[in-house]
Amino acid sequence: MLPKILVCGDGNFSFSLAVGRLQQDGTVSSMEILNNLIGKKGPFDWTCTSFDDRAELLGKYPECEKILPAIERCDGFQVQHGVNAWELDVSFPKQKFDVILWNHPHLGTEDFNLHRFLLTHFMDSARGHLNPGGKIILSVLRGQAGRWSVTASAEKLGLVLDASQSFLPSMYPGYETRRNRTGGSFQNSHTQHHTGDALLSVTLRFEDPKNGGKQFSSSSTKTTLDDEEKSMASIPEKKMRRKEFVCKECGKDFAKSQGLFTHTRQVHQLKKYGDEWTVEGKQLKCDQCEPTKETTYHDEEALWQHKIAMHTLDSSIPHPGMESLAPSDKYEFFPCPVCGMSVSSDPQWGMPAHLESLKPIVGMQLSCGVGKCGKKFIEQRALRQHRNFCRIKATEQKALFTPNNISFWVVCTAIAATVLKQVWA
User: Fold this and answer.
1) pLDDT at 364
2) pLDDT 10s digits, 110-151
3) Distance between CA 59 and CA 235 in Å, rounded?
4) Which segments in the chain show pLDDT lower than 70?
5) What was the pLDDT predicted at 314?
6) How far apart are CA 5 and CA 49, in angstroms?
7) How far apart are CA 326 and CA 360, in angstroms?
8) Are 119 and 85 in contact (CB under 8 A)?
9) What's the 3-state SS for the chain?
10) How many CB atoms lie within 10 A of CB 340?
11) 138 Cβ neighbours under 8 A, 6+ residues apart
C-alpha cells in the first residue's frame, strides 16, 4: 500500500499539480525531490485539499478551471474542498495518513499570535490523524517559525522535530504561493519591497514519539533551527523593510507616504496616544514571571494575553478596560486548552469566536450583537474591543434615560416641544 499524504490548504492547487507531475514523471531526480520533502520513499497516494469550497475556489483562482482536471488525471491523486486544516475530524473522521502537509499557512492578516494559535490547533488536529510513524510537515517563510513559535508549540503538544531544510519553490515547477484573501502571489515585488529581499522558506518535519516517531529531536537540526529562529525572531518586522518614508520625530518607517502622514498626525500632532508614546511601546514586564526573564510587552492587552496563557487556569485576571463596566456586563476568561489563547466565557462569542478567528479572513462572520449593533469584524480582538465600547455605551444610555435622572425629563421636554411645534405649524 502506498504511503498516504494529505495536503492541506493548497490555495490554487498549483503545488498539488507540481508534485503530481513529478510523480507522473517517475524519474530518479523527480522522485528524489518528493522523497526528500516527505521523508519517506514514494510513490505516494495524495489527497489534496482546499479550505474554500469549489465555487469560492474558482472565483478566487480562475486558473483552477484547468489545474483541477489536470490533478485528477494524475494517478494516485484526489481532490477535496472545504477542508479546515485544524478541524480534520470533520472531513476525515476515520481516516489516517502517513504525512499531513501544509505549505505557507496564512490567515490573511499579519498577527503573530493568531498564527501561533492557528498552527498549534493544526498540529493538535493532525497528530490525531497520523498512522504510526507518521509525520507533520510545515513550510513557512524564513523567520515565521520563530515569530510564530512553531517548534515551541509543537513541543508542548509532545511532538519532536525530525528535520529542517530549505524549501525551494523552484523545485516544484508551476507552484505559486497565493494570498488567501485576494488570490495574488505573496512572493511578488510588493511583498519583497516590505521584506527587502526575495522570500526564503523553510520546511519543518515533526513526529509524535507516542505514535512510533522519534523520541528526541536531532541535536544538530534543533540547534540550527533554534539559532535561525532566535536571530530572525529578534528582528522586528519594521527592521526588515526598506526605509522609504521615515518619521522625523521618532524614526519609525513606513512603506507608503499615507502611513507616515497618518502616524505624524495622530501620534505627534494630536497626541492621540499621549506624550509617553514610543516606537518600542510601553515595555511592560510580567510581575508573575521569574525576575531574570527579559521579555517585555508593548501594551496592557499583550501583557494580559500572556498572563492568561501562562499563569492561570481560571478567570482571575481582569481584562484591561473592563473596570468601568457594570458587574452584570462583565465576563470572564480562560486559556484555550489547546493553544493557550485567552477565551471569553461568553457562550455567544467565547470559544466559537476563538475558533472562528483561526479561519482565513474570507471565512469569518463575527458580529457585535450588543443591543441592535450588527457591525461585522474579521478579528476577534477588534470584536472584543468594539463590544467593550458597545457595552459601556449601552450602560451609559440606560443610566441616562431613567425617571430619576434629570436628563430624562430634559429630553422628554425637548421631544414634546418639537411635537407641539409641528402641530401648531
Assistant:
1) 46
2) 788 889 999 999 999 999 999 999 999 999 998 899 889 999
3) 37
4) 178-199, 214-244, 273, 276-277, 279-282, 291-294, 298-299, 301-302, 304-331, 347-349, 361-366, 376-385, 392-412, 414, 419-425
5) 44
6) 11
7) 34
8) no
9) CCCEEEEECCCCCHHHHHHHHHHHHCCHHHHHHHHHHHCCCCCCEEEEECCCCHHHHHHHCCCHHHHHHHHHCCCCEEEECCCCCCCHHHHCCCCCEEEEEEECCCCCCCCHHHHHHHHHHHHHHHHCCEEEEEEEEEEEECCHHHHCCHHHHHHHCCCEEEEEEEECHHHCCCCCCECCCCCCECCCHHHHHHHCCCCCEEEEEEECHHHCCCCCCCHHHHHHHHHHHHHHHCCCHHHHCCCCEECCCCCCEECCHHHHHHHHHHHHHCCCCCCCCCCCCCCECCCCCCCCCCCCECCHHHHHHHHHHHHCCCCCCCCCCCCCCCHHHCCCEEECCCCCCEEECCCCCCHHHHHHCCCCHHHCCEECCCCCCCCEECCHHHHHHHHHHHHHHHHHHHHHCCCCCHHHHHHHHHHHHHHHHHHHC
10) 19
11) 101, 102, 105, 119, 150, 203, 204, 206
Residue with cell 522586528: 236
pLDDT at 301: 65
Exposed e or buried b per residue across 119-132, where buried means at least 16 C-beta atoms within 10 angstroms of its C-beta:
bbbbbbbbbebbee
Output the pLDDT for position 172: 94
* 366-367 and 342-344 strand pairing: unpaired
Amino acid at 187: Q
43 prior amide bond cis, ω within 30 = yes
Torsion angle (degrees, nearest 10) of CA 350, 88, 178, 40:
140
Q: Which residues of 277-314 are buried (b: 16+ CB within 10 A; e: fewer)?
A: eeeeeeebeeeeeeeeeeeebeeebbbbbbbbbeeeee
Task: Return the number of other C-beta atoms located less than 10 Å from residue 212's C-beta.
Answer: 12
Tell me what pLDDT residue 263 has. Answer: 84
CA distance 358 to 237: 22
Q: Given the C-alpha cell 507616504, which residue does it identify? A: 257
Contact 380, 356 (CB under 8 A): yes
